[in-house]
Amino acid sequence: MQVIVDLCVVPLGVGVSVSAYVAECQRVLDAAGLKNQLHAYGTNIEGEWDAVMAAIKRCHERIHEMGAPRITTTIKLGTRIDRAQTMADKVRSVENKLA
Q1: Which residues of the chain fall short of a pLDDT of 70?
Q2: How far apart are CA 58 and CA 64, in angstroms?
Q3: Going edge to edge, which strands form the sheet with 35-39?
Q4: How many CA atoms lie within 13 A of 18 on its CB side?
């Protein structure tokens, strides 16, 4: 099953800046071959359910390996079975209505 996820991973106990941890999670997603788009408060990911969830787990593992004692993660996800839809399709649909 295909899924589109909005992921926000926040390491706790590592100070104010978390960009190094976010960058490492981006590397994990890229290594997994998942289509993803970084935004100001998280990352959108699209792919096969199991691959996406495995990559999210790997993000947690890597961030803990980097020394973060705690992580809080917010995940919003959507699936649909009536037709294929990508992240770009969803954005384009709204942009077309703004034109």
Answers
A1: none
A2: 10
A3: 35-39, 42-48, 2-12, 70-78
A4: 19
Looking from the CA of 40 toward its CB, the CA atoms found within 13 Å total 0
Q: DSSP character for 67? A: T
**Do strands 70-78 and 2-12 pair parallel, antiparallel, or not at all (unpaired)?**
antiparallel
Angstrom distance (rounded) from CA 54 to CA 33: 12
Contact in structure between 52 and 34 (CB atoms under 8 Å): yes
24-33 confidence digits (pLDDT tens) = 999 999 999 9
**φ/ψ of residue 62, rounded to 5:** -65, -45
Alpha carbon distance 71, 12 (integer Å): 6
pTM attached to this predicted model:
0.93
Distance CA 57, CA 52 (A): 9
Sequence length of the chain is 99
- Surface-to-core class of residue 39, CB atoms within 10 Å of its CB (0-12 exposed, 13-18 middle, 19+ buried): exposed
